[in-house]
């Protein structure tokens, strides 16, 4: 624990209490609206970008899974972000959940947060999710595919934004791996990391 915080049991009590009563969610959402207004954006977006990231687990995190594509055992973080890289939908699952299976539930969470979304960007693995959004709510789905002969990482339209968000999360030591015993705690710590980032933006 950082030296300027109270004893562990007190901090953990409030962490779990605020997780259970939705305090982290409310603080996160309020700051997100302030950050968007500060740059001249409306409180809610019309465009979103979706993606998933596999993160190595630890002996404490459970449930875990094995991502054969990434050859990594752990969990997968599905997120939907706006054009500022702010999170609008979040879902942490075992790493063996494929993008085609995790995408539609992520879109359902996105719909709960943003009713009037117009366009959703994602890679080809999210074809099922993009189709789900088009059929259910008439969203325009844009699949960004790899370039012919592409080797390694290449900056692609819109998708670099969500990759940058994953980079922000990776700077938080607590999120460099999946240390949390529960998925609920994992999602809460992701929102706390975004709260920290948004407060720093507003202070500037």
Written account of the structure:
α3 packs parallel to α4 (127-137). The longest helix is centred in the last third of the chain and has 21 residues, at 183-203. 43% of the residues lie in helices and 20% in strands. Strands 1, 2, 3, 4, 5 and 6 form a six-stranded mixed beta sheet that branches. It is built from six helices and six strands. The protein has 204 residues and is an alpha/beta fold. The model has no long low-confidence stretch (mean pLDDT 92). The radius of gyration is 17 Å and the shape is globular.
Question: Percent of residues in helical segments?
Answer: 40-55%
How would a crystallographer describe the biggest sheet? Answer: 6 strands, mixed
Q: H/E order of the elements? A: HHEEEEHEHEHH
SS summary, helix count: 6
Give the overall silhouette.
globular
Low-confidence stretches are none
Mean pLDDT: 92
Structural class by SSE content: alpha/beta
What's the short story on this structure?
The protein has 6 helices and 6 strands; from the N terminus they run H-H-E-E-E-E-H-E-H-E-H-H. The chain is an alpha/beta fold and 204 residues long.
List the helices and strands and how they pair.
Layout: H1 8-20, H2 23-38, E1 47-56, E2 65-67, E3 72-81, E4 87-94, H3 99-113, E5 119-123, H4 127-137, E6 140-144, H5 159-170, H6 183-203
Parallel strand pairs: 1-5, 5-6
Antiparallel strand pairs: 1-3, 2-3, 3-4
Comma- or semicolon-separated keywords:
204 residues, alpha/beta, 20% strand
